[in-house]
Amino acid sequence: MPKKSKKSSALTPRGIDAEVNKRIQEFCEKNNCQSEEVIDLIKFALEPALPKEPTDPDEMTVAQIKNKVAKAWGKTNYLQLSKDPDWNIYHKKTGLNGRLRETWTSYFREWVGFPNNERNLKPAYGVVNGIDIFKNFRPWEVFEVNRKTATKDQIQAAFRKLSMKYHPDKTPNPKDRDVFEKLVEMRDSIIAVFES
Questions:
Q1: Which structural domain, as residue segments, surrounds residue 90?
Q2: Per-residue pLDDT tens digits for 59-115
Q3: For position 143, which CATH number holds?
């Protein structure tokens, strides 16, 4: 019968047996700390790590994306979300096909967030304050105003500042008209929140 290699037994954690518990008590007495806290920390360190959930919608299944959107709407899962009348009104207004992955990726970007690799982008066509405005409809971030505390005047001021840069009358680049029109759309969507 083959002998077990020492290498495989070394990979199994010892756990907290009587000898380890005695050494923890001695350590805590010497360093004036609570043994219960040290034991809890050791148990935590010995637990197997849970796999990390993906945060990028491109790495997620459609079901994962739907559940993330549901949580952003205050629901525990997609089934609850699908029964919410406010969600159904919103979804109908978007005119998007709920059977398509692209639809749910769009909802994810709007309600949950967008991937870190799409933040703080280098200046390029359509990139305003580090965000590709044609790919991500994120008006609060584009205008650099706080969603919870911004006033209508602050939003208007942020829009004016950006419009000076992208207004078709102020720039020779004809593509800036598209950027300006997208900024107007974003401003109007935020202002609508104050008027509702």
A1: 57-111
A2: 889 999 999 999 988 999 999 999 999 999 989 988 999 999 999 988 888 888 777
A3: 1.10.287.110
